[in-house]
Amino acid sequence: MPATPPRPRTAALIVAAGKGVRTGGDVPKQYRVVGGRAVLAHAIDALAAHPGIDVVQVVIGAGQQAAYAEVIEERMLPAPVEGGATRRDSVLAGLAAIAGAERVLIHDAARPFLPAAVIDRLIAALDSAPGAVPVLAVADSLARGGDTLGKAVSRDGLVRVQTPQAFRTDAIVAAHHAWPADREATDDAQVARAAGHAVATVAGDPALDKLTYEADFQMAEMRTAMISRTGMGFDVHAFAAGTSLWIGGIEIPHSQSLSGHSDADVALHAIVDALLGTIADGDIGSHFPPSDARWKGAASSRFVEHARDLVTARGGLIDHVDVTIICEAPKIGPHRDAIRRAVAGLLQVREAAISIKATTTERLGFTGRGEGIAAQAVATVRLPANP
Ligand code: CTP
Ligand code: MG
Q1: What is the mean pLDDT of residues 313-340?
Q2: Which of 256, 271, 246 has its CA nearest to residue 332?
Q3: 369: helix, coil or strand?
Q4: Which residues touch 272 (CB under 8 Å, ≥6 apart)?
Q5: I need a labelling partner for 86 at 20 to 30 A (CA). Which of 100, 290, 307, 317 fits?
Q6: Which of the ligands is closest to the CA of residue 15?
Q7: Which residue has the least CA distance to atom 6 on ligand 1?
């Protein structure tokens, strides 16, 4: 009997069918490029990358198919559904498409910067409430507007409500069907509340603020601005008796081995220090002390993965790593491609971003005398300029 496909537990619904009238310009705001990617692409990627989200469904406007296809590129998503004249119409169209999911996070495409921690908090809150929303305190004074300032409004107890807004799907679908058709709702939490559902609040994030006006796009560019950082690493290991050695994540048969902490992979150790240098975060010794049981005897590949994760945790992108291995023997040339592949795999970058070079020291010095192997690495990463 064919297996029934599992019901996705958690769907993300991105409403992207608006016209962006308040922003103006030729292109609806969700298709404008900020930090090298369309606003909608940022929102999709943040949700698709989260392990708690099983499927991302996008709702697009009539006539936006071509713009959408250009944004999607190779991303694997279900076909978009067409939205309606109001945000609520668009949400209803999207909810019909993900009806099978147990939980849904409804998100505005116009909020491109979505921290994973907010998604974590929303999903966790759904365990004890049928709905949950991210909120932020109001910092400014509030008052009625007009040509001259109107009456002050107390901000006591007021919050700004963001998206994604998370719901148990059955609850939000029923709430939308109970909502009067002729009344607009600016978000889904008010629809859920009107139907009597408790909506929990979790901490929102200023990065989630909606792009509404042209000036918001200037702030968004600042948020996505990147700076380039270069770090260097150097390491040496002495030869010891043995029949193979580890260099650059591969094991090479040789008449000697290398002695040292873990597998003594001199090239990977240099890469770790170069990566740590880009984020000015100590060195291999401070992160992986041999005294720490967690790292005792660990393969150097784990050190590289950990350093890579430290860079990516800061929003960093590894642009390039250049390695020079310094020894008389073994010959590195025949292994260069395998090392390149191994390092690219560990760093999760394309092979074109990894350069592996080797040199002798003309029989001079400790490497020339065949006492050990040295390695140098230079790493270039991009980091958020305004974290
Ligand atoms: N939205 C939608 N369908 C609509 C209207 C809005 O899917 N008929 C979406 C927008 O694409 C946006 C989100 O709802 O991601 C929040 O709406 P808003 O910021 O108001 O976007 P727009 O309606 O596009 O902008 P404006 O109101 O300035 O025209
Ligand atoms: Mg609108």
Answers
A1: 97
A2: 246
A3: coil
A4: 233, 284, 287, 288, 300, 303, 304, 307
A5: 100
A6: 1
A7: 18
